[in-house]
Every structure is written in C-alpha cells, then in structure tokens.
Amino acid sequence: MQRNRKRMWLMLALSVMLTFTLAACGSSKDKETESSGSTTDTTKATDTDSKTDAAKTDKDSSTAAATDTGIDHSKEVKLVGYLLGEAPKGMPEVMAALNEKLKKDINATLEINYIGWGDIASKYPLILAAGEDVDFVFTADWNFYVQEANKGSFKEITTDLLQKYMPKYYEKQDASAYKAAQVQGKQYMIPTTTPDRKVNVIVLRKDIMDKAGLTNPTKISELEPYFAEIKKDYPNMTPLNLDSQYDLPAPFGALVSEKFAYAGAPGDSGDPSGVGNYMDLEDPSGKVLSITDEPVQGAFKYAAGIMKQWFDAGYVNKNPYSNKVRSKDNFCESKAGVAFGNSIDIQATLASCKEKGIDTYIMPVLSPSGHAPANSWLNNGVAIAAGSKNPERALEALDLLMQDESYVMTDYYGIEGKNYVLTSDGKLGLPDGVAAADNTYPPDAAGFWFVNKDFLKPSVSWTDSYIDLNNKVKDYLIQIPYLGFSFNSDKVKTEIANLKNVSTQYFLPFAIGSVKDVNASFDTLVSKMQAAGVDKVKTELETQASAFLAAKG
Amino acid sequence: MKDIRRHWVLYTMFLPVAIYFIVFAYIPMAGIVMAFESYTRTGGMFFSKWVGFDNFHYFFASGKAWLVTRNTIVYNVIFLGCYTVFSIIAAVFMSEIRSKFFKKMTQTLMFLPYFISWVTVSAFVYNFFNYEYGIVNKILHYFGMEGIDIYSNTSYWYFLLPFLYVWKWVGYGSILYLAAIVGIDQEIYEAATIDGASRFQRIMRITLPLLKPTMIILILLGLGRIMRGEFDMFYQLIGNNGLLMDATDIIDTLAFRSLMGSADFGMASSVGVYQSVLTLIIILTANWLVRKYDRDHALF
To answer: Minimal Cα–Cα distance from A528 to chain B, Å?
Structure first.
C-alpha cells in the first residue's frame, strides 16, 4: 500500500508536469505567432531586457515616480500600441528607425500590433477587456470610443497630464476638442489636432465614360449608361462590385445624399443613425427624424428603387456579404467598374491606376446643397488603456509620434530614400525604381491616422483631377450642427442590439436592391424597427442631442 | 478511500480528464454571474453592478427568440440524424470491404474534410456557387441553362447545410461506429454464416442491433450540443446575408450579430445561460426517456 501510494504521487507529479510543459509549449507557440504578426524590431536580447525592465519599473513605480520639475527617464520601458488595419511589409524597418529615436529621446521602445479590419468588432473590446499588455490604442467616435469609455477601458486624460507629458500636442490642440471628447464629463481620448478634411468620392474610368457618352456626371443616379456600357463590353467587370463592409451601403448612401444631407453610418455600428434614427445634417434645428418622416422615407424609397433596378439589371454583385475585397482595391484590376472611398484613402488607388495607364474621374458625394460634413476631432484619435503600466511614457511617445515632424514623416511615410523622397519643390515622390504598388510602406497605410496632418506633403503622383478635388474639398466642407456629438447608447443597449440585427436582416438587402418589392420591404423594415424599440432610442437620442446643442449655445 | 487505493491505476487514468473538466467546465461556471451583471472593466467578473434579468430582456424582445431557438433545434436534429445514419452506413460498408488498400483510402478521404475549417469551406462554397463566376454557374451556362443564385434563395440551403455537415463529419463518425463493429464478437458472424445467413441478413440481424448501445450513447452525447448551433458553419457560410436569415439564423449567430459591436459581456453570457438551461432540460428529458424504455443504455 505504502509503495503504491508513493507511486501514485509520482504519477500525479508526472501528469501535472506534463500538463504544464504542454501548456508552456502552447503558450510559447502562441507568442511566436503573435510576434510574427506584430512588428517588434528590437533584437531578442534587448527585447527581454526591456521586458524585465518594464517589470522592474512596474514594481517600484511608487518610488520612481517623476518629480515635479523633470520627467524621469532612467528606466527603459517598452510600450505596446494597437492600431487598426494591417502592418505594411516595410513595418519592421520603420519601427527600427522609430525605436532608435524613441530610445534616445525618452528611453522607450515601441511595439505596434494591428487589429485587422474584419476583426475589430470582436477583437478590439477583447484586447481592452483582457487587460492584455497594451498601453495605447487607436480610437474614434466610429470605433467604440463611447462604448469603451463607458465601460472604463480607457484611462482618463486630464489637462495636467497633457500639459506635462504632451506639451507639443497641448500647444497645438483646440480647447473645444477636449470638450468634444468628453464622455459623461470626463475625457478619455487624445483626439487628433487636425481633423481630416475629406469627402466621400466615387471614382470612374474615363475610357468607359467616353464610350458611354458620359461627360462630367455629378450624381450617382446619372451613371446608368456607364453601368450599361460595362455590362455590354466588359464581361469580367462588375459595375458595382461591393464588399461586405464599406461598399455595401455606399451606393445607397450616395443616392440618398442626392435628396438630403444623409450621414450614412454603417449598419453595424452603434451609431443610432445607422439603425433607424436619422438627421438632416444641414438642418440647423437638428431635428431627429424617424424612417417614416420626410425626407427620409421618400429618399430611401427613391434610392432603393434605383438600386433594385440596378441589381436586377446585374450591375451589382449578387452576394456582397461574402466579398471581402473593397471595390477600390480591385478597381484598377478591371474587376470593379466603380471605386468607393474617401478623398484620402483613394490616393493609392489613383496612383496605381495612373501607373497602369487607366484614366480616372473623381466624383465627390455631396448633399443637395453641394456640401459634405466636416469631420469632427473624434474621427481619429488615440486612448491610453486603463491597464497601461506606463501611461506617462506612452503619452510622451505619442506626443512625439503625433506632433514631431521627423517622427510624423517616418510613421506616416516610412523611410526617406526607401519609401519616399522629397522633390525640390517639397512634394512627396517615390525613389527611383519603386512603383506605388510595391512600396513596402505606402502613405497612410500603417494606421497612424491621428498624427498632425499639417506636416503631410502633396504627392507627385496626384492626378490633376485629384489636385483639383483637393483644392475644392475646403469649400465642400461645412460645420454641421452636430459636429463632435457622439451618442451614448448605454441606456438603450437592448434596443440598439436588436436594431442592429434588424438593420442587417432587413436594411442591407433593401440597400443593395436585392429585395422583391421596394415598398413592401420598406414596410417590413419599419415594422421590425418599431418592434425592436426604435422609438425608445429616438427619445434617448433627442434628449442627448438637445443637451448637446444647448451646451454648444 | 479504500476503493481509490485498490483501483489507483484507474483513478490516475481518470485524473487528466477530471482536471480538464474542473478547469474548463466547472471553474468557468462561476462566470454565469456575468449574465446578471452590467459588466464594467473596473468591476470585473464578480463586482460589477447586479442587474438581475435585464440582460435577458434583449433576446426575448428581439422577436426572434422563438424563431432562432426553433432553427437551432431543427437544424441540429437534422444534422444529428443525418450524421448518425450516414456514419453507420459508412461504417458498415467499411467493415465489409475486404481490400485493405481501398479501405484505408476511402477512410482517409472521408476523414479529410474533418480537418478543413469552415472558413475554408465557405471559400469553397463561394467559389462554387458565386453567381457571377462560380463553377456551378459556369457549367450551367455552358449547357445553356439559367444560372442559380443560392445566396438569395433559402431553399438551396435546406439541402446544402446538412450536406456540408455530413460531408465534414461523416468520416469522424464512421470511425466511432467502425470501432464498435470491430468490437463485435467474430464468432457470431461465423455461426451465422454456417447457418446460411446472407451478408445482408448478417448486417441487419447482427451488426445493426449490436450497434444500438453505441448509437444511443452517441446520440445522447450529441443532444448535449443541440442548443449550441454550429456557429462556425452558419457564420462563415451565411454571414450577414439578410435574405437568408429567417431560414438560417440560429441562436449563436443572432447573439453574435446583435452584440458584436457593443461587446457587452453580460448580454452575451445571458444567451449562453439560456442555451445551457435548455440543454440541461433536453438532456434530462432524453435520458429519462431512454431509462424508461431501455434502462441499461441510459447515461445516468
């Protein structure tokens, strides 16, 4: 018996050991895959060094707290940031360059990880909730800022912190931006100092336009002959080749915009205007509209009617829900007849079309009065994770990344001589022998959208029509009454959850025109929205909206 | 205690399984409290605000609670039925095949889909049935026929979904049943052959009746998953296609779709709790039925 028991303990110890080794294997493997997806550039040795150091800092942070006069940089720290999108191929080199500078300036190294576009909704809250090793993270009013701030995922940003750790930023930023960023009276976001100046655009091919006999169209509804021409002579091209995320509601939104100033929020965001409550953005009274109110009802039926005609004529791909490729990414490959985007992210498309000798025509999507809403500060920003171990150093790093010209040139454009060159007239060009398509670090692609964009340069690859558009953008943009307003859906989350569901099931087919009967499906949409509690959301939205307008004066 | 000492080998063999279930099933059960809380980062799992049944409200207010529950159960019953029938047929065929090479070959080929994830399968399906340039439509066009558009027509999916499910799982299931067939005493077959039973008679009178216990246990275990929809499958194949949703929406996809953006852990767990409670009821009922008619084969 005694012996047996001994043996049993041995077995137990063995099995426990086995479990642990297995677990260890598993996790180290995880780490490997993780870091291959991420972009650490520091060599292994410094990597481990900085990790132990970070741990040390954490341990004696109370003693190592900075004095009032200066900021203590004696401990080296490693910062981890999360941005959206995908790491460009040239990221490791750019990170090496950035880290060299950061090490010198604030004794810190940086690791940037990416959350892919398709995973944002599932991964973004998870990273914050898991309290994973994360210091700062991209955030925006369209990317869960208010929801996550409500949940306490972000660290509060105070004026003192900004003055002390982000002096360059503080000097540049407009005070009203801080106000816009407040959620229940507290600020959690570091909004960009330069809100984007962009409009949504539709890009067409000049050669097909000529064939279709179309000159200077200004509205999407005028494009019927263009689509017909594609259908006739370009069998491999789908006129409206929509993807499941961005493009899907885009043509519908552009059609509705012909009737009133429509915001067109994507269907699955928490934004109430995506799910049953609308506003005429240019209406100074800021009245909240239901889907059955005019002009919404008329405009929706008008847009859905046209979409249905186009869908039935085969101008729209039959299953955009499964298509993950944005039209702007296969427009130059002659697979999509139209590219949807905005005047900033469309640059790469235009450049690669130019290289392929495809002439393009750009059409801004404007409201009936010929305007587009100016972007708010909250459109791009960054927040410090609540679980950050080195928030102060993260703020300092962000100050440099956002507001220091040499940093901005690196994080936004890459390495000079490799990813870009500056021409004598101060324009941005590509080094000899590098084509736009094989630039390993294309402008804007790395997700540093919150940097001070006043440092950015015009590009030599811009087409005349793009330059023309860019000059006009300023005139298109107007300050809408609700600039900077963000809805707090905390009190109506049940209704929002159900409305999102209704939106996916009944609104999206309506918007791409795949329904059998426009009027009948509109009525279904309305009744389902009412059942899901759209009126309750409207009441809540009205309360918040009028409080916002009153505070603005 | 005495029992443990006497059968210590058996108990040790059981240990890893016990640890697994304690770590991955019993400890996480405490997380059920989240379904009754308004989760915040600071409050965490156990100290967030208690909101009672508020989190359950959205699921029943969606007006689709009954629809998705029915879809989940109906699809899973069909899946389980098809899976059991085809697995047994495949296992019986396999056991009757004499050529070793052919046997191994079919087994491998049948087992292969088990390793393919639904993400990949959805890419297959998309490329087969895509309206514009899918293989199926290209072939149909070649023969001068009208193309089919499965992505806006629910009827195709009633066939396609069970078909894909069986295609993916039948290799796995047939191995379980094959193992049971191999375990049947060969002497029974020999005796039957001597008595002049044909091959068909041997299958019907010996193999199938002797498979019954295995079948009952596997079905009872399968019932445990009946409220958990095959999320990967539905989500990857159908995605956000509104036109197909009334026919293909299951509890898991509905919850995922409505709660994705808000990342409200409380509301998400409420759906999990709902599924678990229903599963518990179904399992208890099924086991009770089996016990009533066939006491020996019940799970507990």
So the answer is: 9
State which residues of chain B have pLDDT below 70.
Answer: 41-42, 260-263
Sign for the pseudo-dihedral over CA of A154, A159, A164, A169: positive
Give this complex's ipTM: 0.70
pLDDT of residue A24: 42
Using the beta-carbon criterion (under 8 Å), do B261 and A269 form an inter-chain contact?
Answer: yes
Q: Do you find a cis peptide bond into A295, omega within 30 degrees of 0?
A: yes
Host domain of residue A77: 2-19+37-188+381-448
Q: Looking at the structure, do residues A242 and A169 belong to the same domain, yes or no?
A: no
> What is the structure's pLDDT at A280?
82
Considering the domain boundaries, does residue A29 fall inside one? no
- Which chain A residues touch B242 with a CB distance below 8 Å? 504-509
More confident residue, A286 or A14: A286
Asked whether the beta carbons of residue B257 and residue A504 sit closer than 8 angstroms, the reply is yes
| Percent of chain B residues past pLDDT 70, beyond the cut | 98
A144-183 confidence digits (pLDDT tens):
888 888 888 898 998 888 888 998 898 888 888 888 888 8
The answer for A89, left when phi > 0, alpha when psi is -120 to 50, beta otherwise, is alpha
Q: How far is A142 from chain B (nearest CA, A)?
A: 11
Give the best residue of B58, B237, B265 to mutate against chain A (max A CB count within 10 A). Answer: B58
Question: Which CATH number is A176's domain given?
Answer: 3.40.190.10
Any chain A CB within 8 A of the CB of B81?
A: no
Do both A50 and A84 map to the same domain?
yes
- Tell me which residue of B121, B49, B95, B68 sits closest to B265, measured CA to CA: B49
Looking at the structure, tell me whether residues A282 and A140 fall in a common domain: no
Mutate to test the interface with B, among A494, A500, A508, A512 (most CBs of B within 10 A): A494
Of A389, A416, A448, which residue sits at a domain end? Answer: A448
Residue of B nearest to A323 (CA): B126
Contacts of A275 in chain B (CB under 8 A): none
**Inter-chain CB proximity A504 and B151 less than 8 Å:** no
Residue where a domain terminates, one of A394, A416, A448? A448
Domains of chain B: 67-185+214-250+282-297 (1.10.3720.10)
Could you tell me if A289 and A154 lie in one domain?
no
Same domain? For A338 and A246 the reply is yes
Q: B259 at the A interface (CB within 8 A)?
A: yes
Same-domain status, A131 and A77:
yes
Is residue A193 domain-resident?
no
Instruction: State yes or no: pLDDT of A449 exceeds 50.
Output: yes
Residue A300 falls inside a structural domain: yes
**How far, in Å, CA of B294 to CA of B299, rounded?**
11
* Residue A305 shares a structural domain with residue A402: no
- Residue A456 forms part of a structural domain: no
- Whole-model pTM: value is 0.73
Copy the structure tokens of residue B42. 């600071």
Residue A535: closest CA among A290, A279, A262: A290
Contact at CB, A129 and B41, closer than 8 angstroms = yes
Residues whose CB falls within 8 Å of the CB of residue B260, separated by 6 or more in sequence, listed in order:
A121, A122, A268
A371 and A389 part of one domain: no
Structural domains counted in chain A: 2
